[in-house]
Design goal:
The complex is a heterodimer of chains A (313) and B (247). By secondary structure, chain A is an alpha/beta fold. Chain A has one domain (33-283). Chain A contains 10 helices and 10 strands. Chain A has helices at residues 8-20, 35-45, 64-80, 95-112, 133-142, 144-147, 189-197, 213-221, 231-244, 276-308, and strands spanning 2-3, 6-7, 52-58, 84-89, 124-129, 152-154, 160-162, 180-185, 204-208, 227-230. Chain A has a 6-stranded parallel beta sheet, with helices on both faces. Chain A has a two-stranded antiparallel sheet with strand order 1-2. In chain A, helix 3 packs across helix 4 (95-112) and helix 3 (64-80) packs parallel to helix 9 (231-244). Chain A is globular and about 80 Å long. The two termini of chain A are 25 Å apart. Chain B has 3 domains: 1-79, no CATH class; 82-138, no CATH class; 139-247, no CATH class. Chain B has helices at residues 3-25, 33-68, 88-94, 108-137, 157-162, 166-187, 195-243; strands at residues 70-71, 77-79. Chain B has a two-stranded antiparallel ribbon with strand order 1-2. In chain B, helix 1 (3-25) packs across helix 2 and helix 6 (166-187) packs across helix 7 (195-243). The longest helix of chain B is centred in the last third of the chain and has 49 residues, at 195-243. Chain B is extended and about 75 Å long. The two termini of chain B are 25 Å apart. The model of chain B has no long low-confidence stretch (mean pLDDT 89). Classes of the chains: A alpha/beta (313), B mainly alpha (247). The interface between A and B is large, with 64 and 49 residues.
Chain lengths: 313, 247
């Protein structure tokens, strides 16, 4: 039951406290968005009304802590810029449900803020789930008309129609007709997107879990992707840039969020921007502090135990 | 469903979620029956959900509708059925022959097709993935802007593309050294007599360990994010919003 001198339940009680209490306080955290995050937001901000984006939703409840924040921030931005989007999934049969739930949440938020509800069929569509990620992504890259050809959605009158009759798919004849491809993922679908989609010279970006951050950095450094969001830091970066804009100076000439990767400035997005990232990120710092303290205590205990046994410290 | 019924349903669903979270986390303290119960419920739900989702989200439209055709409610046939799609059943079923000692050779046919497709894809995609990475690995390590230690804030993107400051050159050198030493560590895995090469291999090993450390750090942060999310679900989404109706 005991690890060193601290009982196990005390460690877990401390962990729960550190992961819970900070959630109820507004703790300001100084932050400089990472370069991939800035490039991600810069690319999103450059989209115009009427552009069409293919959004891969390849995450489920198991990575909700990070991926839901990514998805929400991306969808909030796309909806406010009136960019049309197509949602699809290849990694897990539960993934489409997770995406639809987030769209419903963002839509409810928009209605509460007296913004227009984002309409399925005219402004967004779901192309559903395709098993076997590599084959599915390859087929979308090679021939999207065939890959999505069998899909049907309810139109505004409730009649089932082929997906390609939707106004969202009006200009889509191949994957190169998308203005941007984004994959929010907790799995290896990033590799398949690079293999098949980047070969078509379509702008590509990822929102990945913290574990996948280092490997995704390779794709960013070699310019195979335009930008990426990594873990909770990525969510926090996005929310900060959406809320405060980039290089937008206040009355004292100080920008709350600045980056030399953005020529000029990107104005803040109107509406609700902060959420999961802003709540979780300070809490993560407290939890990490606990871990550092525990590592310190653990090492001290180990050295003390050695000394007690007569060995060298 | 009436709105209040929907709300009640959502509260019950959230309460079930809280119970499941507590049940699954209870294993951290020690192995117990409460954990086992929720583990089995979770596995059952995931399997059941996947089976239904594969049909509704995938097979029905991609395979069944193509086989049987699509008829509108008005009676108009919009897609004629194509009987050849029925042939996918025996091909798929052959995969299950792996469980038969007598007929397991049949399983090798669909497996062979899948492996062939995968191999073909890999040949096609190899250069797409690694070509740009190899190109980007060849970074200049000699500075061109000798008067600048770090990049001037007023330089244009065009100028930035052609000038290498001292700090960039050092950064690039570290990158190239890491790349070569790690490659050397894997290439010269046999006994190396050359002292310099030996040292480079050792450096490669240490640099790899630094890389793994960074990945492990990210992993720890991700796991914390998941715990924080569950705590948020229990305290805020369930207790504050659903039970106490605050916020």
């Amino acid at each position: 039951m005991k690890k060193g001198g601290i009982p196990k339940f005390v460690i877990y009680a401390l962990l729960i406290a550190c992961c819970s209490i900070p959630l109820f306080f507004k703790i300001p955290i100084p932050n400089k968005p990472s370069e991939p995050s800035v490039d991600f937001y810069k690319t999103l901000s450059a989209l115009k009304e009427g552009d069409v984006v293919l959004v891969g939703s390849d995450w489920t409840g198991s990575t909700r802590g990070e991926s839901k924040g990514h998805m929400k921030a991306i969808l909030r931005t796309l909806m406010r810029k009136k960019v049309k989007f197509v949602i699809w999934s290849t990694a897990d049969p539960q993934a489409p449900r997770a995406a639809l739930d987030v769209i419903a949440e963002v839509n409810a938020e928009r209605v509460a803020n007296k913004e227009e509800k984002y309409q399925r069929w005219t402004q967004w569509v779901s192309a559903g789930y395709y098993p076997n990620s590599d084959v599915a992504i390859n087929s979308v890259a090679q021939d999207i008309k065939t890959a999505f050809g069998a899909r049907r959605e309810n139109d505004t009158t409730g009649v089932q129609q082929p997906l390609f009759k939707s106004p969202v798919m009006e200009k889509i004849k191949s994957v190169t007709d998308f203005d941007l491809v984004i994959d929010v993922t907790a799995s290896k679908t990033t590799d398949f997107h690079v293999q098949f989609i980047s070969a078509k010279n379509v702008p590509l970006m990822f929102a990945v879990t913290g574990v996948m951050g280092p490997e995704t950095q390779v794709f960013y450094n070699s310019k195979q992707i335009k930008g990426f969001l990594s873990g909770l830091k990525g969510v926090f970066d996005m929310e900060q840039m959406m809320e405060k804009g980039v290089n937008v100076k206040d009355a004292n000439g100080v920008a709350a969020v600045s980056s030399d990767r953005v020529p000029g400035e990107i104005a803040p997005l109107p509406g609700v921007s902060v959420g999961q990232g802003t709540k979780y990120y300070p809490t993560l710092h407290v939890a990490l502090l606990l871990m550092i303290v525990m590592i310190g205590i653990g090492n001290y205990e180990m050295l003390a135990a050695r000394k007690r046994q007569g060995g060298k410290a | 469903m009436k709105p209040e019924q929907i709300e009640t349903y959502r509260t019950v669903a959230a309460a079930a979620g809280v119970l499941a979270t507590l049940g699954l986390f209870s294993v951290l303290y020690k192995e117990n029956k409460f954990y086992r119960l929720f583990e089995h419920i979770f596995l059952g739900l995931a399997a059941g959900w996947s089976a239904v989702a594969v049909w509704t989200e995938s097979l029905r439209e991609i395979w069944w509708d193509k086989l049987t055709g699509v008829v509108e409610t008005t009676g108009v046939v919009t897609e004629p059925g194509r009987w050849a799609y029925i042939l996918l059943i025996p091909i798929g079923a052959m995969g299950y022959m792996v469980f038969s000692k007598k007929h397991n050779w049949m399983a090798k046919i669909p497996m062979g097709v899948l492996l062939g497709i995968w191999s073909g894809q890999q040949i096609q995609s190899y250069w797409t993935v690694y070509g740009p990475q190899m190109k980007q690995g060849m970074l200049p390590i000699v500075p061109t802007a000798f008067d600048q230690v770090i990049a001037r804030s007023d330089r244009t993107p065009e100028l930035a593309a052609v000038t290498i400051t001292w700090s960039q050159a050092i950064s690039n050198f570290l990158f190239v050294f890491t790349l070569l030493s790690v490659l050397s560590y894997f290439l010269f895995s046999f006994e190396v007599k050359n002292k310099a090469l030996k040292q480079v291999n050792v450096a490669g090993r240490y640099l790899l360990m630094i890389g793994f450390g960074a990945i492990f750090g990210s992993t720890v942060m991700m796991r914390f994010s998941l715990v924080i999310d569950r705590m948020y679900f229990i305290w805020d989404e369930f207790l504050m919003k659903r039970v106490l109706h605050i916020g």
